[in-house]
Amino acid sequence: MISEKEFVRKFESQVKATINRFKLLSKEDKILVAVSGGKDSTAVLYMLKKFGYRVSAITVDVQIGKYTKENLDNIRKFCSELNVPLTVVSFREAFGSSLCHIVSLIKSKGWNVMSCTVCGVLKRYLVNMHCRKLKAGKVVTGHNIDDEAQAFVMNLLKNKQEMNARLGPYPGIIRDSKFVPRVKPLYLTKESDVERYSKIMKFPVVYGRCPCAVDAYRNYVRNMLNELEKDYPQLKENLIKYFLQTLPKLKKRFISDKHLLACKLCGEPSRSDVCRTCQILSAAKTLL
Fold first, then answer.
1. Which of 127, 184, 197, 224 makes a 20 to 30 Å CA pair with 42?
2. CATH 3.80.30.20 for domain 4-284
3. Which residues contact 131 (CB under 8 A, 6 or more apart)?
4. What stretch of H or E contains 78?
5. Which residues contact residue 118 at a Cβ distance below 8 angstroms, ignoring those fewer than 6 apart?
6. pTM here?
7. Taking 60 as the threshold, does the pLDDT of residue 288 lie above it?
8. Can you name the residues that pair with 261 across neighbouring β-strands?
9. Which range, 68-72, 168-172, 198-202, 204-208, has the best average confidence (pLDDT)?
10. φ, ψ for residue 53 (rounded to 5)?
11. What is the dihedral sign for C-alpha 36, 42, 46, 47?
12. Which residues pair with 270 in a beta bridge?
């Protein structure tokens, strides 16, 4: 195993190479990093600041008790140490309820939904809305190659190729002024390498998974790929290589010259008359 110093050098060089290869960022961009308190988003925030990019941070507090409180405390401390401006957005202030309460209300109405699905939809909604308010040019997320391989396989197993067309280091198939572009500088980095980097750098992060994610479909796919990779090394890297080769065809197949619609309830960008967030909130009888 290489020394910690050499590992850090190679890891950071790999992230720089990913940014350059996919033309994800420029030094002129006003960048907002979506941070959760986990190793991935913390690492990418630190590196972009170190690389000289203009970065601020945003986090969404979904109010899952001690777990999110600890994450939020870590984020506040870390951003203060880095001298990075931080915007904190609260589920309760935005939607009137915590994530768990919203999910319980929806399930009481007969919806078969996972907490992760609801959380993802509502967090993306809030991040995009506040990124526009803050006039950010790019949103950076901490997705790594493990996350992306899992998402690709999940969509394949569900026969959702249009969802795969929206993936990638610079995701999306429709560009619209109301939707701030997202980019993924950790796209080609292994989760295990991100964790090693985070521990070497002694970042203040929570390494356990979200307690609400115990029943997530992603867990089954993650475990399956991890087991397969024991016998087939570089399985995830090969999956992503194949995906990137097919991505141009997928985008061409599903691309549309249509602009995103404006949700008739909240005015935010949507692919239908009512956005998924408003559908969820309506089902939960929670008003914006």
1. 224
2. no
3. 32, 58, 139, 180
4. helix 65-82
5. 99, 102, 103, 106, 280
6. 0.92
7. no
8. 270
9. 198-202
10. -80, 155
11. negative
12. 261
Crossing angle for the helix pair 65-82 and 39-51, nearest 10 degrees? 10
pLDDT at 271: 82
Question: Tokens in use for 145?
Answer: 């190659």
The contacts found for 36-39 with CB under 8 angstroms, 24 or more apart, are: 36/71, 36/75, 36/142, 37/68, 37/70, 37/71, 37/72, 37/74, 37/75, 37/205, 37/206, 38/71, 38/142, 38/205, 38/206, 38/207, 39/142, 39/194, 39/195, 39/198, 39/203, 39/205, 39/207
Where do the domains of the chain lie? 4-284
pLDDT band at 286 (very low <50, low <70, confident <90, very high): very low
Backbone φ and ψ for 173, nearest 5 degrees, come out as -120, -10
Instruction: Say what angle helices 145-157 and 217-231 make with each other, to 10 degrees.
Output: 110
Q: Are 283 and 105 in contact (CB under 8 A)?
A: yes
Listed residue (36, 8, 2, 6) closest to 200, CA to CA: 8
- Hey, what amino acid is at 274? V
Q: pLDDT for 100-146, tens place per residue?
A: 888 888 888 777 778 888 888 999 999 999 999 999 999 999 999 99
